[in-house]
Each structure stands twice: as structure tokens, then as C-alpha cells.
Design a protein that fits this description.
Blueprint lengths: L1 H58 L4 H12 L6 H23 L2 H5 L1 H36 L3 H8 L12 H4 L8
Helix pairs in contact: 1-2, 1-3, 1-5, 1-6, 2-3
Length: about 180
């Protein structure tokens, strides 16, 4: 009778490890999918940025520092590394805000149909990026819960599953209240 009980306990432990490992793999793959989705939207936005910069250059050619900053930010982020993308994404968001501040000084530019179309596309892209960030963070939360909560954390640590970073606002500028003024 005792060997049967020991055999059942061993089988239960093995099943626990197999099921938990598979949950961790499934959750990690969901995070990768979420990151990939976010990355697709970010690349679409990066592809839109040169057109936006070119239109603004036509009106505000002397604002080259801001325009170069936006272009440089776009160029250095497309390597797919999670931490670099999150960090770079914050920087490019700030650079785009600087670009839109430059636009405010040029009423003719704000009325330009090409610019208005690009601005509308950029706005839609920002909404899609925000949605994909929420999806990514939800996936990371589920994965991190598995990696950090008992008893799953035991299996996670044995097999090298580590918590992943959330996409969070890191810039003080992002947290500031925006003053909107209508002329």
C-alpha cells in the first residue's frame, strides 16, 4: 500500500511540474506575441515619422534641431530588444511632442492638408499603440504573477523564468498636466 501512495505522490508532483511549466511557456509566448504586436504598431509609426518631418521641414526648415532629434530617435530603436524599445519609445514620444510644439508656431502648416492627413494618421497610430501597450502590460502581468506567486515561482526559478518589465510612463514630461490654449 505504501509504494502505491508514494507512486501517486510522485505522479502528482510530476504533473504539477509539467502543468506549471506549460503554463509558464504559454504565458511567456503570450508576452512575446503582445510585444510583437506593439512592435508592429511602433514600426508603422516610425515609418510615418519621416513624412511628417518632411512636411514640417517645408514650413519650418530652420527648426532643424527638433527635426533631427525626431529622425535620430526613430533610427536607433528598431533592434527588437524589449528594454531598448521601451526606453526608446519614451524618448521618441517626447521628441514627437517637441515636433508638434514647433508646428504650433506655423498656422499655415496647421492648415496644410498633407500635414492634417499625417497628423490624423499619427493620432490613430497613437491610439493603436496605446491599446497594444495595454495588451502587452496585461500579458506581462499574467506572466509575472506566475513567475512570482507560490507555488508556481518554484518551477519558474528552477527553469529560469524571470519577471519581465511592464511598459510604464517613465518620463516626468509625460506626467505633467498639459495646458491647452485656443487662440
Amino acid at each position: 500500500m505504501t509504494p502505491i501512495i508514494i507512486g501517486i505522490l510522485i505522479l502528482i508532483v510530476i504533473l504539477f511540474f509539467v502543468i506549471t511549466y506549460n503554463l509558464l511557456v504559454q504565458s511567456r509566448n503570450k508576452v512575446k506575441e503582445a510585444f510583437s504586436t506593439m512592435d508592429v504598431y511602433l514600426k508603422k509609426r516610425y515609418d510615418l515619422i519621416p513624412s511628417l518631418v518632411e512636411v514640417v521641414k517645408g514650413y519650418a526648415g530652420h527648426e532643424t534641431e527638433t527635426l533631427q532629434k525626431v529622425t535620430q530617435m526613430r533610427g536607433g530603436m528598431q533592434d527588437g530588444d524589449l528594454n531598448r524599445v521601451i526606453d526608446g519609445e519614451m524618448k521618441i514620444g517626447d521628441a514627437l511632442k517637441s515636433l508638434l510644439v514647433v508646428v504650433e508656431a506655423y498656422p499655415d502648416l496647421k492648415a496644410n492638408t498633407n500635414f492634417l492627413d499625417l497628423q490624423k494618421r499619427l493620432s490613430k497610430m497613437e491610439e493603436e499603440i496605446a491599446f497594444s501597450r495595454r495588451y502587452y502590460n496585461g500579458s506581462v502581468r499574467g506572466y509575472n504573477n506566475l513567475c512570482q506567486m507560490f507555488p508556481w515561482n518554484l518551477v519558474a526559478s528552477i527553469f529560469g523564468f524571470k519577471a519581465l518589465p511592464m511598459y510604464a510612463v517613465d518620463s516626468e514630461q509625460e506626467r505633467k498636466v498639459v495646458n491647452v490654449k485656443f487662440s
